[in-house]
Amino acid sequence: MYPGGGIIGCTTAYYLTHHPQFDPSVHTVTVIEAARLANGASGKAGGLVAAWANPSNLARLSFDLHDQLARDHDGAELWGYRRVRCGQLTAVVSQRRDISKLESSSHPNIELGKWWARDLKKSSVLPHDLDWFDNDSAQAYEEFADTSSTAQVHPLQFTNSMAKLAEQSGARIIMGKVECINCCNADGSSESPSPLTSFDNLSQRKVVSITYVDEMTLEQHTLPATTAVLAAGPWTPTLFPKVRVHPLRAHSVTLKLQRPVSAYCLFSDIRLGDSRQTVGAAKPISLEIYARPNNEVYICGQGDLDIPLPAPGNAVEISSDSCRDIINAAMSVSEELRNGKVTGRRACYLPTLDVGASSDPLVGHTELAGLVLATGHSCWGISNAPATGKALSELILDGKVSFMDVASLDPRRIL
Q1: For a tag site, which of 25, 27, 84, 297 has the least CB within 10 Å?
Q2: Which of 351, 333, 335, 249 is nearest to 285 (CA)?
Q3: CB-based contact 208:192 (threshold 8 Å)
Q4: pLDDT by residue (tens digit) across 342-359?
């Protein structure tokens, strides 16, 4: 059972149903999602896949698994998998341009933790094939990852593909809101199952079922379960409050360009001021700018804590000002982007365990027998999903994880 139909839950379902020990006549794999698959960050993220991501024990293995999945299931066609180059860029925008909204946000922005805004060690002209960025705005550029360690996927397509492949191999997907995880005494003594509301003596109890409300009929159902994988991202504390996840809201936009552009993922600092000023003379606006196949570009800004996390399945409030800031900043440094058409304005919440910093996710058993956590992946959920799913499939069906060391991810180290 998996409360959560995002990339972690769907990828775990994939690896469980593709595990050599999986037997559909014996095992039941059910994904329960409150709204729709990839409804949160899994459908609104950038889709960067990096061997150099955090944590290192997940990142390299997950990068290789992404490549294997793409080769096994035509990922280039189904979810836009391709290798990319990754660079850091500083640009200065002339005040003569219409950039009046670039610093309109009243909230303090928070780094998403995906990159480290380091000072560039060298200044140079842009790579010859990075021809969709204005040369007169670019002040410094440094490539810090090439195609040997960096790739991308379309997150929504990737998540839905993992779910479909899991279904084809025996998984069941239910649209419904999980109300509670039900437990009873672990020693087998007589007791009626009860919802997980108390967190005392967890080691003396075990998971026996999950109760949910069907999205269409609004009827309540209870399904038996020996293992519950809680992969609900920022909503994890609604079912298991012992996990202290801090939801960090991030906005993004997508543009449709008039032509294909080269495969770069850029971490940019865009500064206001005259191009004759020094690079450090103006406060930067940080954007992640990812070129995608099919003439699409994805652009993400920094995070904020302005609006509390909504209830599971409810819409995320989108700030029109934040989206406008992203659009104006990006278009101020690229004629190709200025000529593009805005096709989407989005917001999602990242499940961070430490606001504003990268932290190891929680992947593994809890004190409560049968409750497994897979949460806290922050901005690296898409990238690290395959290794997470494979590790959980081994943990559940083999009783241990053999292909990697997961000790640093054990939820019991901090819960």
Answers
A1: 25
A2: 333
A3: no
A4: 999 999 999 998 645 447
CA distance 137 to 135: 5
Burial status of residue 355 (CB atoms within 10 A of its CB: 0-12, 13-18, 19 or more): middle
CB 248 within 8 Å of CB 380: no
Give the pTM.
0.92
Using the structure block, give the residue that is written with the tokens 């159902």: 221
Decide if 238 contacts 326 (C-beta within 8 A): no
Provide long-range contacts, Cβ within 8 A and 24+ apart, for 306-315: 306/107, 306/249, 307/249, 308/247, 309/234, 309/235, 309/247, 309/349, 311/238, 312/34, 312/35, 312/177, 312/178, 312/232, 312/235, 312/238, 313/34, 313/35, 313/39, 313/177, 313/215
Which of the four pLDDT bands, split at 50, 70 and 90, describes residue 105?
very low
**Confidence (pLDDT) at 415:** 84
DSSP state of 118: P
